[in-house]
Write a structure and sequence with these properties.
The structure is a homodimer of 208-residue chains. Chain A is mostly helical and 208 residues long. Chain A is built from eleven helices and no strands. Chain A binds a DNA duplex (30 and 30 nucleotides) through helix 3.
Chain lengths: 208, 208
DNA sequence: TACAAAATTAAACAACCGTTTAATTTAAAC
DNA sequence: GTTTAAATTAAACGGTTGTTTAATTTTGTA
């Protein structure tokens, strides 16, 4: 699998990432990409072969450095509750900083057929699950967390809530009176982050 | 707003719902809809005006009875905790039974451009929020729920978790050893439903 | 039965799609 | 400086898109 791209190719990939994230794969034409990237329309086919192979190249380009970003939180010297807080902050910041590719993955690779093909994603997901498991088991051993938590469903709760919130951005901006995009971004990093942290902590600690 | 459709229109709406859910809005052509529904391609424009208005009509058609179910719940004679449980069950069953339209909403209305156009959806969201507000305020008045809950973020937590879980179906089927689609569906209605109920209740009740 | 409204049709419309071609320019190697 | 390969271009290709037209059929009503 090719993982190295020249300057021109990266230029195209970055523009494509932006446009795919904004308008979807089908909603973005090669002509739009070419115009935005200030290149001839034939260059996409010339460099990547086809529009679909451009998307494939983009996934490869982005997931290769996503792997490296993986950090090991579980060895830090913090109590389990602080670790949960930090884990959620990590989650949110990572998605925030790679909004484009996460959006694309979320949309274009949500069909079962596509999901099967992208085994690369499973590695990332498995590692995330392992990290969460380690932290929660530690908290359970210390008697802080309840024993009957459904650990595999923690990650969907965090990520799902985040995606759903930011995917209905226009609605929530109006509802929460967040006039600018900056205000929305700020809300995510403060109030919204706290909401998820509270939610997960409450789920882990609360005895019914 | 028009809410009544004749037989032919409903026939078109149902086919469109299926195709939009399968291939997306942009990925579905009027010609495909016409062929599948066994009508002339001009009939869509004739009955609905345009492709976009067809989508609008579909949303109106599918969300018109949701309103009643939600409002009935808030007046039922149950304590707030039971109402939350019922609300979440309602949410999940509602999405399960109307998978097609919810998939469309989830995917097509995530672009800001689309979201701006379709004001219809805002009414539905506002009504849902109102229902949740009523229930939570009742619980707060009775001293059962905490006062500092971020109510607008409850719905994204429920729906987001559900969507993210079912959108990564293939991964979770393997992870949770759910061999068949029926096993997956059953998992949603039992274990997964309980997880969300516990999560929301914990968030509403737990004092940190 | 006659007439008007509604429904349905095939055809054409202009615009856009992804891709390919063949000619031209640029860059590198000898 | 010449040769060769890579990069870039405008133009054209065949197809599909959503929508409109104008003619025809069906339907309901008086």
């Amino acid at each position: 699998m090719k993982t190295d791209f020249n300057e021109k190719q990266i230029q195209i990939l970055l523009i494509a990432e932006k446009l795919f994230a904004e308008n979807g794969f089908e909603g973005t034409s090669i002509r739009t990409i070419a115009k935005e990237a200030d290149i001839n329309i034939a260059m996409v086919s010339y460099y990547f072969g086809s529009k679909e192979k451009l998307l494939e190249a983009l996934i490869v380009y982005r997931t290769s450095d996503l792997k490296i970003q993986m950090e090991n939180l579980s060895v830090e010297n913090l109590d389990p509750i602080e670790k949960i807080d930090k884990l959620i902050e990590l989650y949110i910041n990572r998605i925030r900083c790679n909004k484009g590719i996460y959006r694309i993955l979320h949309f274009e690779f949500s069909s079962e057929e596509m999901e099967e093909k992208m085994k690369i994603l499973n590695d990332v997901r498995d590692r995330n699950l392992k990290s969460i498991e380690t932290i929660i088991h530690e908290g359970q051993a210390k008697g802080i967390f309840r024993k009957d938590v459904n650990i595999p469903l923690i990650s969907p709760t965090i990520m799902g809530t985040f995606f759903h919130f930011s995917m209905n951005k226009a609605y929530f901006k109006k509802l929460l009176k967040l006039d600018t995009d900056e205000a929305f971004e700020n809300y995510i990093q403060t109030t919204f982050k706290t909401h998820i942290q509270q939610t997960i902590k409450a789920l882990l600690i609360y005895e019914s």
